[in-house]
Prior knowledge:
By secondary structure, this protein is mostly helical. It is 67% helix and 5% strand. It has helices spanning 2-9, 13-20, 26-39, 43-49, 64-81, 85-106, 128-134, 136-145, 157-170, 174-200, 207-214, 218-233, 244-258; strands at residues 52-53, 56-57, 116-118, 124-126, 153-154. The strands form 2 sheets. Strands 3-4-5 form a 3-stranded antiparallel β-sheet. Strands 1-2 form a two-stranded antiparallel sheet. Strand 1 and strand 2 form a beta hairpin. Helix 1 (2-9) runs antiparallel to helix 2 (13-20), helix 3 (26-39) packs antiparallel against helix 4 (43-49) and helix 6 crosses helix 9. The chain is elongated, with a radius of gyration of 21 Å. The termini are close together.
Amino acid sequence: xxxIKALIKIYDYKGALxxxxxxxxxxxxxxxxxxxxxxxxxxxxxxxxxxxxxxxALFLIEDTRCRELxxxxxxxxxxxxxxxxxxFVIGLNPFLVEIxxxxxxxxxxxxxxxxxxxxxxxxxxxxxxxxxxxxxxLLAELDKEYKPYYRTGDLNVIFLYEYIKFYYDKSxxxxxxxxxxxxxxxxxxxxxxxxxxxxxxxTSITEERIKTVSSKTSKQIVKDIEGLFVTIFKNKIKxxxxxxxxxxxxxxxxxxxxx
Length: 259
């Protein structure tokens, strides 16, 4: 039991599953399998196994888009908790591309689709001729940033940051948007400076390295991203959704105690 508890504490559900096989407690197995599947982003499998514990829902978000982003973010949060910071940094990139688009749509209330071409292979391009037609002022700014000028390119974190910065600079709502803007700046810097390091070097990313680049700890960054979710999705999200793995861990420990 104490071994299972120790593994659950560090969110090692795969390891816990091997130990729990010997025990005769179906609820315990279901809860741990649910977490294992969920952490692998297999939501529908996790839901099929168990979606509530004695009437308490295990999925707390109804909105599909919000739920997808939160579920992915929770895998990052657990990497941060385990101090697997290289994996945390690498995993940030696809998340940022998605959350920044949601911020643009929901908070800045801008329609980016008219400047994009989404390909079948999930590639998305920002098209110069569409910028010329629909966003000439933004294009003028981009031409200053990119040498010799902005060419049609991938929709990535750097472009999204430039887009958000352009609308932030024009905003009459700077005070409300300041916190999110600074967070995006920090996240862009981490993504730009540390992602290649994390992927290609034999040294791992440390807490000090993250703090040097962003002036925040990885724990503070996670907390700030939770605040960003609330800014974007408002009442579609409950704070308790960010702690769902810890809540399920309490249920698992309860089952172990009673077994």
